[in-house]
From TrEMBL:
Naturally occurring in which organism (per UniProt): Cereibacter ovatus
Any one Pfam family match given in the protein's UniProt record, by short name: Carb_kinase
Gene name linked to the record: nnrD
UniProt name for this protein: ADP-dependent (S)-NAD(P)H-hydrate dehydratase
Any one GO molecular function term: ADP-dependent NAD(P)H-hydrate dehydratase activity
Matches recorded under PROSITE patterns: YJEF_C_2 (PS01050), YJEF_C_3 (PS51383)
Reaction(s) catalysed by this chain's protein: (6S)-NADHX + ADP = AMP + phosphate + NADH + H(+); (6S)-NADPHX + ADP = AMP + phosphate + NADPH + H(+)
Length: 317
C-alpha cells in the first residue's frame, strides 16, 4: 500500500507545521510465517532465548507479570522477572514457570547481564520513575541487547537526553499517542494514516531504533526508513483491546519474539498481529490476562498450515 501524499514537518515560529514530502510505501502487516513461530524436534529451551523483564517495587508488579507471561506464551525458552528483593514474595505467589531474580539497582542488573544467554529485555511496565529506575534503564541500554522500551521507561527517556542518547538499533519503542508526543513533541499532532506514518518514520530515524506507534492503525517504523501498518479495523477490529494491561502484554510478546531471534521490526509486526488475533479470539469481556491464554489457539491455527509439510518435525502444541 502506498500513501502518495505523505506529510513531513517543517519548523515555523511557535512550533511545527506539516509540509508535503515524498511518498511513503506502507507495507501491510499480515499473518506471520508459521515456520518462524514453530518449535522443532531436538530443540531445547535454550534454543529459544531468554527474556528478562524488569519489574518495579512491591505493589507495582502486575504489569511486568503480564509481560512475562506473554513472553513465555509466545515461545521464549526461558523468562526471568527481575525485581527488588522486597517484591520477590508477591511475584513468587503469582508466577510459576517464570523465574525470579532480585535486582535492587543498576549494579545488580549489570552483574546479571554478564550472562550473555539473557538476549532480550523488556523495560517499563510498572517499573517506576525514580533515579534507581533511570539507572536501570541506562544499564540495560548500555548492555547492547535487544530491548523493548515501554511505559515508564519511555517516560524516563523522554525526560532525559542522556538516556535517549543510549538508544540503539536493537531497541523497540512502543508508545501510545500521548507517550509519542512526550518523546517527539515536534512530531505530535499528526492526523491521518499518512501523516502518522511519516511522523513515525522520522521518529525512528531520529531515535536510531524501531518505533511502534500504537492505535487502531498501529505503525511500525524502522531506523532504515521502512514503515508497516496493521489495521485493526473493519473485519479485523479488536475494540476489546481498550483495557488496562493490554499494552503490557504486547511488550511481553515483542520481548519473547526478540529472545527467539526475531529482528526488531519483525518482532514488533508479528507481536501486533498476534495481539489483535488473540483479542478477536476472546471477544467481548476481554481482560489483559485473557490475551496470553488465547495465544495457544492463535498459534495452533497458524501452525496447522505447517503440518502439511511432512517430516518437518513441527511441534503444534
Amino acid at each position: 500500500m502506498e500513501c502518495h501524499q505523505s506529510v513531513g514537518w517543517t519548523r515555523r515560529v511557535g512550533g511545527w507545521r506539516p509540509r508535503r514530502s515524498c511518498a511513503v510505501t506502507l507495507h501491510q502487516i499480515g499473518p506471520p510465517d508459521p515456520a518462524r513461530l514453530s518449535k522443532h524436534e531436538g530443540q531445547h529451551k535454550y534454543d529459544h532465548g531468554h527474556a528478562l523483564i524488569l519489574c518495579g517495587p512491591p505493589g507495582h508488579g502486575g504489569a511486568a507479570r503480564l509481560a512475562a507471561r506473554a513472553a513465555l506464551r509466545v515461545g521464549a525458552g526461558l523468562v526471568t522477572l527481575a525485581c527488588p528483593a522486597a517484591a520477590i514474595p508477591e511475584n513468587a505467589a503469582r508466577l510459576d514457570a517464570v523465574m525470579l531474580r532480585a535486582v535492587d539497582g543498576g549494579a545488580d542488573l549489570a552483574q546479571m547481564l554478564t550472562d550473555r544467554r539473557l538476549n532480550a529485555l523488556c523495560l517499563g511496565p510498572g517499573l517506576g520513575l525514580g533515579p534507581v529506575q533511570a539507572h536501570l534503564v541506562a544499564v540495560a541500554l548500555a548492555a547492547g541487547r535487544a530491548v523493548v522500551v515501554d511505559a515508564d521507561a519511555l517516560t524516563l527517556i523522554a525526560r532525559s537526553p542522556d538516556l535517549a542518547a543510549g538508544l540503539h538499533p536493537g531497541c523497540i519503542l512502543t508508545p501510545h499517542t500521548a507517550e509519542f508526543a512526550r518523546l517527539f513533541p515536534d512530531l505530535a499532532g499528526a492526523v491521518g494514516l499518512a501523516a502518522r506514518a511519516d511522523a513515525c518514520r522520522i521518529a525512528a530515524g531520529r531515535a536510531r531504533a524501531t518505533v511502534l506507534l500504537k492505535g487502531a492503525e498501529t505503525i511500525v517504523a524502522g531506523p532504515d526508513g521502512s514503515v508497516a501498518v496493521h489495521r485493526a479495523t473493519g473485519a479485523r477490529a479488536a475494540p476489546w483491546l481498550a483495557t488496562a494491561g493490554a499494552g503490557d502484554v504486547l511488550a511481553g510478546l515483542i520481548a519473547g519474539l526478540l529472545a527467539r531471534g526475531f529482528a526488531p521490526a519483525e518482532a514488533a509486526g508479528t507481536a501486533v498481529w498476534l495481539h489483535v488475533e488473540a483479542a478477536r479470539v476472546t471477544g467481548p469481556g476481554l481482560i489483559a490476562e485473557d490475551l496470553s491464554e488465547a495465544l495457544p489457539a492463535v498459534l495452533r491455527a497458524l501452525l496447522r498450515q505447517a503440518e502439511t509439510d511432512s517430516g518437518s518435525g513441527v511441534v503444534t502444541g
